[in-house]
Structure formats: C-alpha cells, structure tokens
C-alpha cells in the first residue's frame, strides 16, 4: 500500500482547520499581527510552509512524525498553533511522552489506533479510534498512540502552541544519565536490569 487514496480531501482539510478551535494555547500574546525574523522578506511565501509535500505519498517503515512548529515554520511564532503528521506502520507505536507546553488534538485520517493518557491521579484513559475520530491529550500528561493492526495508520495532530515540546518518557528515564541505583530503587528492581534496559537506548 503506497498511497493515501482512501483518505478523502474533506477529512484532510478538516484536520488542517481543527487547530482553529483549540483554546488551550499557552504561548504569550504578541503585540503585533505576526512575528518575523529580522531582515526577512515579507511576502506570501513567508506565511506558507511546503515541508509537508509528499509526506502522505507513501508509508514509512518505522513510526514517523513530521512537524510544522515555529522551528520549521517561523511564521507560526506568536500564533499559538503547530501541527504534526504521524505515520504508524502496522504494529508500531508512538511511545509514552508528554508535551509540556500544549494540549494535543489528534485526528485519525487513515487506519485505526489505540490511544491513551494518564492523569495526575494515575488514572489511565484509553480509546480505540477509527477514521474520522478525534482525541484530546490534555496538556502535560503522559500519553501514547499504538497501531496494533496489520494495516498502517495516519493521524494529524494540532497543538495549542507554536512549540509544544516533546519529552519522551523512555528516553528521559533511561538515556539521560540518571544513576542506575536511583532507577533501580524507583522501579523496585536491581541495577543489572536497569543497565540491560539502558543498553537498548541511545543518547537523546
């Protein structure tokens, strides 16, 4: 399967305008219409982003996230919005992570997903999504998406920040140099087990 022909244009457009309704923006208000880098030529090209061209033309072999934040698309600076296209091969997942500066509104445009998040009371909320479904991941909470099926899946996420940030839970815990003894006590295991887990991760 090499294309997204089954995905209708109307569903894709709905995903692209979904951020308009997000009211959870955490970016500071700006005192101008927009923010442009110094010595930037201002014309229509500044407000257009072409980095998503071809993203939906084929399915990758591994989970792939293609972002449009203020880092990739400077015109988003001060606009309290950003996007990401998430592509999940069969059986793959987006591991537990958080976005410290924004909520995430996910719209499934192809395939199916199992998603979930954990609140501050350690309650897990899960849901199975089908094409056309949306799911909100509240700001700052640990969440994940999984594709347990034999078919690929594609989702588009909008964020209430031009730079929502991402903290990967596995990488933050096991690849940042936290002492083995501390992790062993935290996970109620031994240092050898922690070292075995760490060996599967590179540096972030």
TrEMBL record:
It is found in: Secreted, Extracellular space, Apoplast. SUPFAM superfamilies: RmlC-like cupins (SSF51182). The keyword NADP does not apply. Residues 53-195 form the Cupin type-1 domain. Pfam families: Cupin_1. Residues 1-25 form the signal peptide. Oxalate binds at residues 94, 99, 104. GO terms for molecular function: manganese ion binding. Mn(2+) binds at residues 97, 99, 104, 143. Keywords: Apoplast, Glycoprotein, Manganese, Metal-binding, Secreted, Signal. May play a role in plant defense. Probably has no oxalate oxidase activity even if the active site is conserved. Oligomer (believed to be a pentamer but probably hexamer). Belongs to the germin family. This is Germin-like protein. It comes from Salix dunnii.
């Amino acid at each position: 399967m090499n294309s997204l022909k089954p995905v209708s244009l109307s569903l894709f457009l709905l995903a692209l305008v979904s951020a308009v309704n997000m009211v959870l923006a955490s970016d500071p208000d700006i005192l101008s219409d927009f923010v442009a880098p110094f010595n930037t030529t201002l014309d229509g090209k500044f407000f257009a982003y072409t980095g998503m061209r071809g993203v939906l033309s084929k399915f990758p072999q591994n989970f792939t996230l293609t972002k449009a934040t203020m880092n990739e698309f400077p015109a988003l600076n001060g606009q309290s919005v950003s996007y990401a296209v998430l592509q999940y091969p069969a059986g793959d997942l987006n591991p537990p992570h958080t976005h410290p500066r924004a909520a995430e509104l996910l719209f499934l445009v192809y395939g199916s997903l199992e998603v979930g998040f954990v609140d501050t009371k350690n309650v897990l909320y899960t849901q199975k999504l089908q094409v056309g479904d949306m799911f909100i991941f509240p700001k700052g909470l640990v969440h994940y998406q999984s594709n347990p099926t034999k078919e690929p899946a594609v989702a588009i996420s909008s964020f209430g920040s031009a730079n929502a940030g991402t903290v990967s839970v596995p990488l933050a815990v096991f690849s940042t140099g936290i002492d083995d003894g501390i992790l062993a006590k935290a996970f109620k295991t031994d240092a050898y087990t922690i070292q075995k887990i760490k060996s599967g991760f590179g540096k972030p």
